[in-house]
Fold:
Amino acid sequence: MNTDSATDYASFHQPVDSSFLKKVQDSPLSQFLLDAEQIQFFETNGYLAGIRVLDDNQIEQLRAELSEFFSPGHSGSQWWHEYHTNESADPNSVLFHALGAWRLRPGFHDLLWNPAFTVPASQLLGGSVRFWHDQLFCKPAKHGGVVAWHQDYSYWTRTTPMAHLTCWIGLDDSSVDNGCLQYIPGSQRWDLLPITGLAGDMEAIQEVLSESQWEQFQHPVAIELKAGECTFHHPLMVHGSYANHTDRPRRATVLNVVRDGVCSQTDEPLLAGADSIACGEPLAGRFFPLLRDSADR
Structure:
């Protein structure tokens, strides 16, 4: 399908680039299934890391598309739900953060339908997979900023019940040195914490933790990944990432999904520029496509 780069790809609820998913679409879906040990690890620890979801050609296409987003006035810029060249207030500590890349470019659009992602997501959610929203988190070389400790669902309480899943996909190798994702294993069993900010202050979360939580907080696990690998985590998992002072960037795309049936908890639009969904109605429509039906085999 040939579509102009300024087209809003939210109009298409199927892959639009015949090459991006060709290799995996020709493969048996069984190869993407998680085994019982992996599922048990997720249920115990609140995350599962090291799952390969992109090949080298897909990584290069997404990197090329991403590079266009850094240029002012790029084609399709009107389709972003959020766009921050620097989420941080400090120009020496840059965190590029944006929501809605799937609307702007074919690779980021088709990524949503990648069975290497949707098959394990369906297993971890325990049902059909519906799109919630995507994100980009990019830390430039030498002066990349932090993503402060937080729980994703703290930002998502406008949807209910809590049946959400996050998939963080590296577009570069990520390590402790360049600001990889870090988790507090077991924190998915904590209650919902107040929001203490997304960028700038890695210590702010201490203000809202109990003594026992703070003790557990002293043992984070760094999630070092190769480009093309992902980590899945629970919506209450406390996670964050430190600054990048290396000479290489740390770029990632994040796919946030829900189990089909999750509902809006407001009459206001769930995302800037999206159609409203009445309070109590399930997510559906143009901006929240069904990505995988659990009945499909």
